[in-house]
Amino acid sequence: MARSEDSGPDDRLGFHSLSTETTVALPVEGSLPEWLSGSLVRNGPGSFSVGDGSVDHWFDGLAMLTRFTFDDGVRYSNRFLRTDAYEAARAGRFDGGFATGESTLRERLWNAFRGDPYDNTNIILERIGDEYLALTESPRWVRVDPTSLETLGHRRYDGPAPSGDLACAHLRYDPDRDLHVNVETEFGRPSYYHVYAMRSPERRKLLASVPTDRPSYMHSFALTPDYVVLTAFPFDVNPLAFFKPGRQGPFVENFRWRPDAGTTVYVINRHGGGVVGEATAPPVFGFHHVNAYQTDGDVVFDLETLPDADAVDSLDLAALRAGQLDAVAGRLDRYRVTDPAGEPTVERTARFATGTGLPTVSPATRLHEHRYVYAQGTDTPVTRWPRAVRKVDTVTGRVTEWSDDTPVSEPIFVPRSGSARPTDDERAHSADDGVVLTVTLDHEAGRSTLVVLDGETLTERARAPLPHALPFDFHGRFFPELVP
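The chain above was modelled as a monomer; its predicted structure follows.
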């Protein structure tokens, strides 16, 4: 399955395969805030090919971590995760990913049951308890030394609570209770969404098991102080198809877009009682919930939506390398669930309808009402990689933008306050007091650059050029505790 690494003139460098690993102090242009201390660790595909083999989809590139440490300057390092998938690729085998591979689905599920599902954990790095874990949509996580970025082994839950065959890539963290919540999908007849809370990878508490005949593709979900909210988009699968003898092909190709089913919204009480409300909303597709909170008895959550699931096919690697990024731009929508624990109704309104990607909020606003959303800014329709950072004021509708006309990564807001649990007054008065971190890619210079923006105005404060060009990655987290 050899592939050419040719691409269109605009974004070809974002899909090249990096082979080097390095640790280096970066030159800094401009002025870094004196209070900025800690590390931004990003995760994503670092290589799409080894030898004559290649993956077929952007989501299946081999996981590579990058770390930017702020401590009297910026120190940078990058390292590939030494996983089973990485070693298999070095041996010439690319199989078992999101949209790559021809092994039978029965074989893949059997591997999951056996305890060694796919481990190319290239989506995000999270801290759970005292461990740093690289995650993807597999229930098999990879332990990482956050200082050296060395791979330390695997983690997978093995206990009395039920577990699933797929997991949401994005856990939700409750800073007030210091615990994570996640969702795993178990395929069978019936299938289940298992919702659980945990303070460490080994110990989890089951909050609910939600039966479903056709499991939805679910990349993230919403969390409030009292509720877990699942949005089951009508991009779903008949689980019996997985077990048909000889059924081959990429995993995601078995999912179907069924708009007549609508989007099912499940409301789950975090304190017992399982599913307490269920409603149907218009059909949409989405990858990323931004944040959620409760107000006046309602549940409110922001979600980046797409009109259908065509985005999955639009990220095929061959098309991206050929410069064929012809996709619909993401739209930032607000959902209000009224009477969530009774007979809920769902209202959807647009907060920003003209092009967002990978939206984030300040970590200080988790589970609380947020005002500002930071996101990649895209053209409409999307014909090239996002080239702007946009700040959307969800109260006034005002949009602030920064761009140097180079592709940008997901923006990460770092609040000035070091408090993990600010008061409501502190949260309101310092909602955008901080900086935004993003990574740009300069095709002409042939390298990436870390850019530090002012959180209020999005004016550029500093930049630090890297020694090489990074492929386009997925998600990052800022860890204030990670300093030399």
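The helical segments are 84-90, 105-114, 310-314, 317-321, 424-429.
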